[in-house]
């Protein structure tokens, strides 16, 4: 049995009594370019945003309180939550361009097996906004450059306050972007890029 993260591995062991090997699901081939093909967007949300577990309404309300309007926020994925600029499903190249353009990618889910949007955003130099009660928080984000700040995101008000604080301090925001990109390149990408995942599959196969 294989699974896509240590979080799922733990759940399988604790809830089902199943021993599983972790093979991280590969992220999309996104990359940092430094370009801004979508300068009209400052933030984005990505995924099945009408799934109640994604809690998209938390991100939307936080962005509204932070002064963002619909034209500044891109909504990407097969489900549109009714607010923001609906881009639908986009190509990997367009996703790369979007993540390089925005300051923030909000992933306000409670339950995530892996949480690829936040991981991919960090690999493009955007700042993921992740909540501390997200199931994969300890695995990927507690030790990140923003981990101590994520711990405070227990309400809509706190999420909006963090975004406003970053927006009001350009130097801090740019430093966080650089630090998050370094973190992604050193901690996230080595687990989730295609080569790393393929090698993990080979290693597990050879160990059988």
Give me some keywords for this one.
five-stranded parallel beta sheet, alpha/beta, 208 residues, two-stranded parallel ribbon, globular, single chain
Mind sketching the topology for me?
Blueprint: E1 2-3, H1 6-16, E2 21-22, E3 43-48, H2 56-65, E4 73-79, E5 85-88, H3 92-101, E6 104-107, H4 116-123, E7 127-130, H5 137-141, H6 147-150, H7 156-168, H8 170-192, H9 194-207
Parallel strand pairs: 1-2, 3-4, 3-6, 4-5, 6-7
Helix pairs in contact: 2-7, 4-8, 8-9
Structure description:
- With 208 residues, this protein is of the alpha/beta class.
- Helices cover 47% and strands 14% of the residues.
- The protein has helices at residues 6-16, 56-65, 92-101, 116-123, 137-141, 147-150, 156-168, 170-192, 194-207; strands at residues 2-3, 21-22, 43-48, 73-79, 85-88, 104-107, 127-130.
- The protein has a five-stranded parallel β-sheet with strand order 5-4-3-6-7. Strands 1-2 form a two-stranded parallel sheet.
- Helix 2 crosses helix 7 (156-168), helix 4 (116-123) packs across helix 8 and helix 8 runs parallel beside helix 9 (194-207).
- The model has no long low-confidence stretch (mean pLDDT 96).
Which strands sit side by side, in order, in the main sheet? 5-4-3-6-7
N- and C-termini, Cα separation = 12 Å
Overall 3D form: globular
Radius of gyration: 17 Å
**Uncertain stretches:** none
Give the fraction of residues assigned to helices: 40-55%
Tell me about the biggest sheet? Answer: 5 strands, parallel
Estimate the mean pLDDT confidence: 96
Q: What would you call the structural class?
A: alpha/beta
**Strand count:** 7
């Amino acid at each position: 049995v294989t699974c896509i993260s240590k979080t799922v591995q733990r759940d399988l062991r604790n809830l089902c009594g199943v021993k599983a090997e972790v093979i991280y699901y590969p992220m999309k081939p996104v990359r940092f370019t430094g370009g801004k093909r979508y300068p009209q967007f400052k933030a984005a949300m990505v995924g099945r945003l009408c799934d109640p577990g994604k809690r998209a309404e938390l991100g939307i309300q936080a962005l509204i309180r932070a002064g963002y309007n619909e034209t500044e926020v891109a909504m990407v994925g097969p489900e549109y939550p009714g607010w923001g600029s609906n881009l639908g499903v986009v190509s990997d190249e367009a996703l790369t361009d979007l993540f390089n353009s925005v300051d923030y990618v909000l992933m306000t889910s409670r339950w995530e097996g892996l949480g690829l949007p936040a991981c991919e955003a960090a690999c493009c130099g955007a700042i993921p906004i992740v909540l501390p009660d997200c199931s994969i928080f300890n695995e990927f984000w507690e030790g990140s450059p923003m981990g101590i700040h994520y711990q405070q995101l227990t309400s809509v008000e706190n999420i909006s306050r963090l975004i406003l604080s970053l927006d009001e301090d350009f130097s801090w925001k740019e430093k966080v972007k650089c630090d998050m990109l370094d973190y992604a390149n050193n901690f996230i990408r080595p687990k989730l890029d295609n080569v790393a995942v393929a090698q993990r599959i080979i290693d597990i196969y050879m160990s059988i």
